[in-house]
Amino acid sequence: MTPSADIDRTSATTSSGNREAIEPSSPVAYFGDDEPLHLDAGIDLSPLQIAYNTYGELNADRSNAILICHALTMDHFPASRSPVTGKPGWWLPLIGPGKPVDTDRYFVICSNVIGGCMGSTGPASIDPATGEPYGLTLPVITIRDMVRAQKMLVERLGIDTLFAVIGGSMGGMQVLQWTVSYPDKVFAALPIATGARHSAQNIAFHEIGRQAVIADPDWESGRYFAHGKRPVKGLAVARMTAHVTYLSEMALHRKFGRNLQDRDVLGFGFDADFQIESYLRHQGMTFVDRFDANSYLYLTRAMDYFDIAGDFDGSLAKAFQGSQTRFCLISFSSDWLFPTEENRAVVHALNAAAASVSFVEIDTDRGHDAFLLDEPEFFAAIDGFVSSAARARGLSR
Amino acid sequence: MAGTPAGIRVDLEVIAGLVEPNSRVLDVGSGDGALLALLQSRRHVDGRGIEISQAGVNECVARGLSVIQGDADRDLVHYPDDAFDYVILSQTIQATRNPKIVLTELLRIGRRAIVSFPNFGHWTIRYSLGLRGSMPVTRNLTHAWYETPNIHFCTIRDFVALAGELGATVETAIAINSTGQKMGMKMPWWFWNLFGEQAVFVLRR
């Protein structure tokens, strides 16, 4: 089977991802024209829709809420089955009764980011002014915009101060932005495998992904829905490239080496001779089933624009000045997308601001994706940090 | 933190007795967090730590302590002046690359610096070097010379001289003898330097 045959088998018009974007199966918060979202792009976005899920019970003091911020291609189903893929929650090992983020103790909230494609307003949502999907008419969204929208949701749920905000990768960027935008509304912050800015190398990989989407003729200048098409080939290539950045050379070698796929000798052609090729094609193919191409453009852009120090005259320490939030940063030794040094730069800025900070580097060969995997030392760190923060917050067991 | 007996070390007990309750403390070289945990439970301090070994840091954070992975030689520069009431360097100064700069940083970051170290002037060490002619391996200094992390040993007399050179005031000095007892304050320095196995100093600018 050729790669194009693989990728073409996805139907262009009956994407379940698209349906979920317009009519989410999860709870939704609506904000009308009287409550617009003020975007960094200088535009007020309304109406606004935020899809979310909650786990556990809000206590009487409303002091036990934990916000989970999801990564680039994740969704607001960290601890429940995804309606699109049917897969269990992406952070199920971490969130649930008796787990480090204990839903018997905490009220856990997770919302789909603005610009996403799982029910919160994004390029695949219908623009009420035209009755058509926004496509590229949606203003560019930033991490700060996502956090502003989350703040609106949290207030709508009747919560003034979050006990904790937790997230990895792009989710970690949102965590950091929360502590900077709303320092007195976050008691404890857990930014994981992240940085206070997107590096040039990371922007470069995102640009390759975006250009792959844009180069696909089925992208149709972003108006693919109107043409009954979807740029599945371009998006699959974008995902294949990105996926490599989530792993590590060691993990790839351990998992695949130079092993051949369904054959004993080299094919002397351009089929997927190697297991790693087959694996990447599969990753690309399954991704296009669940994700919107324009959403991929918007969310990667949001990450590229992220630079907290840039908002504070180049001084990251200034961004955290006076912060009373307790921080715990966690990095992974083989993560080359958000290497330990990027996380440590945040730690040093927090030290300079005399903030309370813990910092753990988990030794693993599983690369950036380690934050989504079952790493006992990682969970022990989260458990220790969250439990001690709960004691300090007076949250009884 | 090389070669120290298990359980709460005597010098940690002594240090805990020197710290005012409810103060802000930075523990440089936190190890497994024994001192920070002791200070938090007994003195209710707002405690932070730096530890060079990742295993130590992970253990501290899992215990709910606020500790980062870092290096006394490299990472103290990131802290602002007067950020803490006490900066503690317990059994670590002899393992730093540049003890003079580290001590200067401690006195900049903290209003007071508490430093504990093994006294290289102790008679057992002098005996080993002076009479046996070999580098000492004792119950406090368990590593052979070729594998020890301790690269800058000093005696009590040497440490007092360095403090003087930096213009620091010795507020409190305590020597602990080989039975783990505090030695009498009235003893002369030479006596401490000969019979004190460990020393704990409180310095201020």
TrEMBL record, chain B:
Gene3D superfamilies: Vaccinia Virus protein VP39
InterPro entries in the record: Methionine_synth_MetW, SAM-dependent_MTases_sf
Record Pfam families: MetW
Coiled-coil blocks: none
Protein name in UniProt: Methionine biosynthesis protein MetW
Lineage summary: Bacteria, Pseudomonadati, Pseudomonadota, Alphaproteobacteria, Hyphomicrobiales
